[in-house]
Structure formats: structure tokens, C-alpha cells
Design goal:
- By secondary structure, this protein is an all-alpha fold.
- The protein is built from 19 helices and no strands.
- The longest helix is centred in the middle third of the chain and has 31 residues, at about 215-245.
- It is globular and about 60 Å long.
- The two termini are about 25 Å apart.
Length: about 425
């Protein structure tokens, strides 16, 4: 390995950033669509809601477990090898899931899908993008890459809903598997410098040990939990929640004139609106990240989510409130990702960013697992999503609080 050379040009848009955006967009478009399959799969097999919810929850947990593993593979053997392995896992999981007819089979195969998402996800891609960017452009580059994931979310769920109008859910899974494989076309330009000379002289065990012993790393780990809980619950259950709990769309309204005449269509659209609003929110968060304290920005984002979620569930759920919630929550949706990944890179360095961020992301996915699984379980036992929603409000407030004591000074400067 060689030391990281100084960038020849201080460009924001680089081939690495563009390719990383493509991989994230494809991976997240499909991941964001799984909530649309909740009702079709449960209806076909007569399963309770908790069965497919558990499959999605396991997918999120496997994603979290796989993230530090794929991050370590990328750090040790190369980014592109990790991404190729992720594509293989993702496509294979989708293909095999299309033939699954039991809850256990779906739940088992979602492990493979989750590992695939990890290989194509933030831990690997943001580490590549972060190393390829200059210090001045890093925060914005991470914001752009994260926004690309949101762009995938914009059309992922509506595309799944549209395809289900022509094909069975099994055929849609096969179509999505083929789309995942197309991400391989972006790999030739996924090359980034490794790290600085000083970082190359330290082993993964040394840097990882320092991070784990640092209380701030633990606070980042805990704080990212609620992000996963809220995002995964909404992605997996919000379309169904809107379908069943939202008031009817009245003729003569703007939504009705746009062809959105059923709450099921509105549910799919809500995921798209969240993704669309998040493009602006994430880019803005990336821009703010190089100008203000990241920990205070993160605390503000989690507090904002808490207030928006509390107001939505406390007030009557109408088509208008669904749209307003989707736009408001969307603006804060993945805004945490460039700030959290940027915070990890700033404090602990770039050399093993994939591994270090991957471990933090595991907390995110623990929250994701709990949000999706608890959503299905409490729905089956209570017939409502209200209780699990309020749990999300509580963990969001906790995350806002735990970010405040984080020390943002780079670890190497503290030691000096």
C-alpha cells in the first residue's frame, strides 16, 4: 500500500463519487420497496403480519451484522471485491426468495439479502467516497452519496407497486435481482486512495481498540440506534399503516386529480415523498457538516424527528397529514448518515473508516430489527401501529440527548 497522494484537482464530482452514487441508488431502491410486499405476500399465504415483518427485520439485522464484515473486507482486500460479493448475495437472496413459500424460508433467505445490502451499502461506499474526496469536499461528498440512496427510495417503492400491477411478487423479485446485477457496471471507476502515511503505520486492531475505549464512540453507537428503528419501521410498515389508518382520499382533491385515489397508492407514494424530501435534506446536512458541529446537528435532527412523529400520531391521520409527515420526516431521513459517517472519519481517521462506521451501523440495524419486528408483533397483538410508533418517539428523544456529550476532537490530537 502507498500513502494517500494529494488530490490533483479539488473537484467535488469525481468518478468515484458518481459510481458510488449509482451503487447506492440501485441497492436502496430495492431495499426501500420491501414494505410494499407486506400485504401481497401475507394475503397470498394467509400469514399474520408478523411473519413477513420478521423476515424484513432479519434482513435489517443481517445488514447490520454484515456491515462491519464487508467494511473489513473492503479495508483489507479492496472495495470492489466487497461490492461484487455484496451484489452476488443480494441477487441470490432475491432469486431464492421468489421461490420461498414458508415464513421460515423467507426469514432465512433475508439473511442473504441483508448481507447483499451491506456489501452495496453505506459502510463500504461512504468509506470509498470519503477517501477519494478532499478534506474540503468530504462532508458534501458524503451528503451527495447518501442522497443517491434517497433517490433510489423515490422510485423504488412506486416501481414495486407499479410492477405488482402486471406481475406476481415472485416475478418482481426476479426483476429486481437483474437490476441489482446492473450495478456491477459502475465498478471500474471505484478506485480510491487508501489513507495517509501515518494511518497506514497503525493496524486495524490498534485503531479499533482506541475507538472502542473512547466514550464518544459508544455514544455515537447508541445514538444511531433510534435512526435505524425509525427508518426501518417506517419503510416496512408505513405503507400498510397508511392503507389501513388513513382517512379516504376525497374526489376533487389534488391527490385524487393526480390519480392517487386509494390509500394503498398513497402509502407507496409516501415512501417516495420521504426519499424525495431527503435528497434536499441530506445535501443540506452535508453542506452544514463542514461548517457546524456535527454532534449538535445530529441532536437537532433527532429532536426534529421526535416532534414530527409525535404530532403525526397524536393528530387524526388524513391524506394531508400523510403528505406533510412524509415531507417533514423525509427532510431529516438520512441526514444523519453523512454527519455520523463524517464524525467517525473526523475523530478516528479514514484508514479503517469502513470497519469503524460498519460497527456503528450495526447499532443502526439493531434498531432496524427491533422497529420492523416489534411493528409486526404489536400490530398482530393490538391491531394497531400506535404503541410501536410511540416507542419510536421515545428512542428518538434518547438519541437527541446522547449526542450532546460527544467529543469531536480527533483522537490522535487528544493523545498528543
Amino acid at each position: 500500500m502507498t500513502a494517500r497522494p494529494a488530490p490533483a484537482l479539488n473537484r467535488l464530482l469525481t468518478p468515484v463519487l458518481i459510481s458510488g452514487c449509482i451503487v447506492l441508488m440501485v441497492g436502496f431502491a430495492i431495499r426501500a420497496s420491501f414494505g410494499v410486499f407486506q400485504i401481497p405476500i401475507a394475503t397470498e399465504f394467509g400469514w399474520p403480519r408478523a411473519e413477513f415483518s420478521l423476515a424484513i427485520a432479519i434482513q435489517n439485522l443481517a445488514w447490520g451484522i454484515g456491515q462491519p464484515i464487508f467494511g473489513a473486507i473492503a479495508d483489507r482486500f479492496g472495495d470492489r471485491k466487497a461490492i461484487v460479493l455484496g451484489v452476488i448475495c443480494y441477487a441470490a437472496g432475491l432469486v431464492l426468495s421468489s421461490f420461498a413459500v414458508t415464513p421460515g424460508a423467507h426469514q432465512l433467505l433475508e439473511i442473504l439479502v441483508g448481507f447483499g445490502i451491506a456489501g452495496m451499502g453505506f459502510g463500504v461506499i461512504l468509506a470509498v467516497v470519503g477517501r477519494a474526496a478532499s478534506d474540503e469536499n468530504r462532508s458534501m461528498s458524503l451528503g451527495i452519496a447518501t442522497a443517491a440512496g434517497s433517490l433510489g427510495q423515490v422510485f423504488g417503492a412506486p416501481a414495486a407497486e407499479w410492477l405488482l400491477g402486471f406481475y406476481s411478487w415472485q416475478d418482481v423479485f426476479l426483476i429486481f435481482a437483474a437490476v441489482v446485477c446492473l450495478a456491477l457496471l459502475a465498478l471500474p471507476t471505484m478506485r480510491a486512495p487508501v489513507a495517509s502515511r501515518a494511518e497506514l503505520e497503525e493496524s486495524m486492531a490498534t485503531i479499533l481498540g482506541r475507538a472502542i475505549r473512547d466514550p464518544s464512540y459508544g455514544l455515537i453507537f447508541v445514538g444511531f440506534f433510534s435512526c435505524g428503528y425509525q427508518l426501518a419501521f417506517i419503510t416496512a410498515h408505513f405503507p400498510a399503516l397508511v392503507t389501513e389508518m388513513c382517512g379516504p382520499i376525497a374526489p376533487g382533491t389534488t391527490l385524487y386529480a393526480l390519480g392517487i385515489t386509494t390509500t394503498s397508492t398513497l402509502g407507496a407514494l409516501s415512501i417516495s415523498l420521504i426519499g424525495l424530501a431527503n435528497i434536499a435534506g441530506t445535501l443540506y446536512a452535508g453542506w452544514l457538516g463542514k461548517r457546524f458541529s456535527r454532534k449538535y446537528l445530529l441532536a437537532g435532527i433527532y429532536l426534529g424527528r421526535t416532534v414530527i412523529a409525535a404530532l403525526f400520531i397524536a393528530l387524526p391521520i388524513t391524506p394531508l397529514s400523510v403528505v406533510l409527515f412524509s415531507v417533514g420526516m423525509g427532510g431529516l431521513w438520512l441526514a444523519t448518515v453523512p454527519l455520523t459517517s463524517g464524525l467517525v472519519a473526523h475523530i478516528y481517521g479514514l484508514r479503517y473508516m469502513g470497519t469503524l462506521y460498519g460497527l456503528v451501523f450495526f447499532s443502526h440495524q439493531l434498531g432496524s430489527f427491533l422497529g420492523v419486528w416489534l411493528g409486526g408483533t404489536l400490530y398482530d397483538s393490538t391491531g394497531s401501529y400506535v404503541a410501536v410508533w410511540w416507542v419510536g418517539v421515545g428512542v428518538g428523544l434518547l438519541s437527541a440527548i446522547v449526542h450532546l456529550p460527544i467529543r469531536e476532537t480527533p483522537l490522535r490530537l487528544r493523545a498528543a
